[in-house]
Every structure is written in structure tokens, then in C-alpha cells.
Design a protein that fits this description.
Layout (H helix, E strand, L loop, with lengths): L17 H18 L4 H13 L8 H50 L1
Length: about 110
Amino acid sequence: MTTTGTTPGPPPARPATEWMKGAHTAHDLVTRQIEAGYSAERIAAQWDQALASYDDTTATPAQREWHDGAEETARDMIETWRDIQRAEAEQALAWKDAQARRQAQAEHEAG
């Protein structure tokens, strides 16, 4: 058995599917909306409005695939953003409560 001394390269790149293209578009748009400071509710409302014009009965298979990728990705990212906003709000409330307890303790000790 002989070897040529070369190692095989990576597999050839496959073209992106329509689902992947839709997912990529949604990822970019939702990321920009988050960076602009939009709430999860505002982003969801805008996506609902944008997706409302989609008509599955007249869509081509490629359009259906693109739509599915965009919708699934947007919904997942919006839900994650909701979770983050909820956690940040809970953390801010806990910090505020801790500050109030420290203030009350300091007043009690001074009093």
C-alpha cells in the first residue's frame, strides 16, 4: 500500500439551502433589531406583520423553505431575547431590593 503524502482537504462546500438563506436573513435582521434596542414584543410584532403577507398556497417550494427558515429562526431568537430581558429585569429588581435592604439596615443601625 502506498501513500501520496497528501491529506484530503475539507469536503466540497455545498450551496446554502433556501432554509439556510431564510434563517441567515432572519438572524441578521433580529440581531440588528436587538442592537437597536427593540423589545422582544416589538420585534415579534414586526415579524408577525412581515410574515402575514406570506401565502403558502401561492408560494413555490423554494419560497416555502426560505419562509420556514426565516420564521423558525426569528421565533427562536425572539424567545431567547424575551428570556434575556426577563432575566435582566429580575436581576435589576433583586439589586434594587438588596439596595433597599442595605439602606434600611443602615438607617436602623444609625437610629
